Amino acid sequence: MTTDGLPPESNATGGLRMGSGRARVTLQIIAEQLAVSTATVSLALRNSPLVAEATRLRVQQLAREMGYSYNRSAASLRTDRTNILGVGFHDITNPYFAELLAAIEETAAERGRSILLATYGEKLDRQERALTTLKEYRPDGMLVCAAGGSTAESFSHLIAADMPLVQLSREIPGLELDFVGSDDRHGTELALEHLIGLGHRRIAFLGENQLISTSRNRYEGYCDTLARHGLPFDPALVYSAHGTRENGLKGIQQVLDVADQPTAAICFNDLTAFGAMLGLRHRGREAGADFSIVGCDDVQEAAQWYPALTTVRNFQEEMGRRSAEILIRRIAEPAAPVRRIVLKPELVVRGTTAPPKR
Amino acid sequence: MTTDGLPPESNATGGLRMGSGRARVTLQIIAEQLAVSTATVSLALRNSPLVAEATRLRVQQLAREMGYSYNRSAASLRTDRTNILGVGFHDITNPYFAELLAAIEETAAERGRSILLATYGEKLDRQERALTTLKEYRPDGMLVCAAGGSTAESFSHLIAADMPLVQLSREIPGLELDFVGSDDRHGTELALEHLIGLGHRRIAFLGENQLISTSRNRYEGYCDTLARHGLPFDPALVYSAHGTRENGLKGIQQVLDVADQPTAAICFNDLTAFGAMLGLRHRGREAGADFSIVGCDDVQEAAQWYPALTTVRNFQEEMGRRSAEILIRRIAEPAAPVRRIVLKPELVVRGTTAPPKR
DNA sequence: CTGAAAGCGCTAACAA
DNA sequence: TTGTTAGCGCTTTCAG
What we know:
The structure is a homodimer of 358-residue chains.
Chain A: H1 27-34, H2 38-45, H3 53-66, H4 72-79, E1 84-89, H5 95-110, E2 114-119, H6 124-136, E3 141-144, H7 156-160, E4 165-168, E5 178-182, H8 184-198, E6 203-208, H9 213-228, E7 238-240, H10 245-256, E8 264-267, H11 270-282, E9 292-294, E10 311-313, H12 316-332, E11 340-343, E12 346-348
Parallel strand pairs in A: 1-2, 1-3, 3-4, 4-5, 5-11, 6-7, 6-8, 8-9
Antiparallel strand pairs in A: 10-12
Helix pairs in contact in A: 1-2, 2-3, 5-12, 8-9, 10-11
Chain A binds a DNA duplex (16 and 16 nucleotides) through helix 2 and helix 4.
């Protein structure tokens, strides 16, 4: 609700002085000191060509001496621009999202924007509140990776308010918004064909989750590729869960308990794959030698695992950067046609895949 | 400089209408519709007991119907409070910092605050700009993990402006500010004594870096503990570098090239330890069996490495949470005495440490 | 319980 | 080249 979450009590002090008693320095103060108008000071500080060189220097010097600090809240109120990009993610503890966020922050900073961050796990109600609060800060636009199960409806208030919006990585069906992500179906195809090429026939899928588009698409890629190669689909080889380390561990154990064991597994993401590798060791088996594992994303640690993880590279750096760029363009051209940037993933073969043991 | 980084051009539209032509809904609009004053609407939306139940309900309902969204910029200008916490970190791709940030964000959200994020690598100039920009958004306070080599001077403008400030994890000498971090010396002591107890005598230190307090303290703990146990200090066993995966890999190779090889290494952080484990494999050796490694931090992946990493747990979740709480208290009581929260680390023995091979 | 009025710090017409 | 004026959307006295 829009009326929730307002500041419960605001003990304003009147706001004119600082703790130590000095008056806070504003354009007004500088203008008075210099006997010019605030308009002139404002222009001078922004290096406007309208103001005389000499004036500009005097103003800038005094501002520096007095320790003036630009008040973006005030400016925003006037210009209706905050130079803030709102970012809503479900979890930044997941290195995939941390890498995306780092790229976004860096790109934003280069372009003079700052990041207002909100996270919400996979909780729809927390997402609802988080996005509402973000919006109240009037970011120029928002970059969102929606919680699983989000519907177009969750975003209707943002769209109604003409908030520039781009979806990152995950895509909500029926939402006509800019999107930056990966060709997830294709990524799984690459992974599966690699395994099939190695001779695997019974291949599990760990981390199926219909609530998020990335998992839906990866899972579809899995099913379709099996079919295309004439391999049977066995629901016992599919483990449904969020893509976490813990679930990778549980998932591998479950599919290893199937009578007719698989010889390989495709994982929804690298985290799931790491968990699966661990689970394999609990069973006295080793990824690569005894069982093949393919991850997805190629987060930093993937290359350092032992054995190093064969995975599908999703280019977080580029994805994060482009999403920020697309958002900034969307802000500049609100009426431009909707853009979909879909990056082509690449298979990175490392040590966790090998021909099946006879 | 304060005059840099102002918005280059602000193409304000006048700001009264939205793309689709509807007027943006403000307190004013609601007040007119209801033939009450904006003051009443403002109070009603904030559930003030001053306004009659019936009025409150009418106002809140109309606000909801009209899709009213609270404008925090405007409110901030008036109240001098933004409910924003500025967070400055060097790198969120490092899981240690990602875990801290996640805890901070969560705590902030619980307390009705939002996070404005800035990162700066270990670059002092970027940090300078980032902190200046953060400040311009007038956060109620800032949480900072300073770039290596930062001096008290870098923070003087924030302090002069009475910005509530808390240092996280790293501490800058000579700065009288709230601090939340770990007892890093003690952590290394635990690690080193564990190794000495196992029988190791030549123990390397990877990731020495005088520019950050965490490394200085951990290194001191190393030197002192060696001395206390009557073990010689050998500079050839110290590898100086930032605590990254890559440097762990390089560092282990370097100390392994010393004529009188060490049998174990203490690493500045887990990332360095992971790199070292990888470097060991490049030499055909395995952490645990052939060489002992101790990390520091206990990030999520540490438990999942193979072998699982023996490390010093630093309680990121608690540290992040407490730092946010301390900042919120500092904001409420600007004149309260400076607080130092130093958490006691704990040794977590796992698979990468064992008695030295004979 | 409600309204009138002032003002937070800034920018943008428009005038001079 | 500079000044005047108005106002962004909100909160807060102070009166009624």
